[in-house]
Amino acid sequence: MIELVEGDITEQQVDVVVNAANSSLLGGGGVDGAIHRRGGPEILTECRALRAGHYGKGLKTGEAVATTAGRLPARWVVHTVGPVWSDSEDRSALLAACHRNSLHVAADLGAHTVAFPAISTGIYRWPLESAAEIALETVTNTLSAGSCSVALVRFVLFGTDAYDVFREQADAMGLGGS
Ligand code: ADP
């Protein structure tokens, strides 16, 4: 099931909150900054440990990795790195990979409920209409593939503009829901 809400992802009572991180994993602006601020220093401590281990060069675009959610109401944060929008190159497959890989990491944790922000649509400048189409299609396809334990995906859109665009795209895809 897919749900759309307008709001702040740091307030969501879900198993997993997905973070639109950058490859350094060491925090940034936008939703990343909000997650680290509200979640507290434990998240950054785990991110630093990831950088000291398997992710010495950082997290590649399209990949996903989990940490604690610290003080957030969620149990885990799954960090993924969205592609920066490009006028000259089609990077859609990387944006799709973010959503697919985040859901697989969430499923490996045993998560049933997952909240996503509109990955890449802030500092990385991806147009909302296109991001909504890729996000909704990829999540729908991943959930219906069967091997995924996740039962609910909630897109948490920051502001009415983002909400309206996702709503319109979901309606066009016949997703219905709330
Ligand atoms: P990116 O670098 O992937 O573009 P940003 O954090 O700049 O990531 O933006 C991604 C989306 O997250 C944007 O649509 C932005 O408005 C939104 N956003 C920012 N803060 C929050 C928040 N607290 N909850 C949900 N969405 C947020």
UniProtKB/TrEMBL annotation:
<dbReference type="Pfam" id="PF01661">
    <property type="entry name" value="Macro"/>
</dbReference>
<dbReference type="InterPro" id="IPR002589">
    <property type="entry name" value="Macro_dom"/>
</dbReference>
<feature type="domain" description="Macro">
    <location>
        <begin position="1"/>
        <end position="174"/>
    </location>
</feature>
<protein>
    <recommendedName>
        <fullName>Macro domain-containing protein</fullName>
    </recommendedName>
</protein>
<dbReference type="InterPro" id="IPR043472">
    <property type="entry name" value="Macro_dom-like"/>
</dbReference>
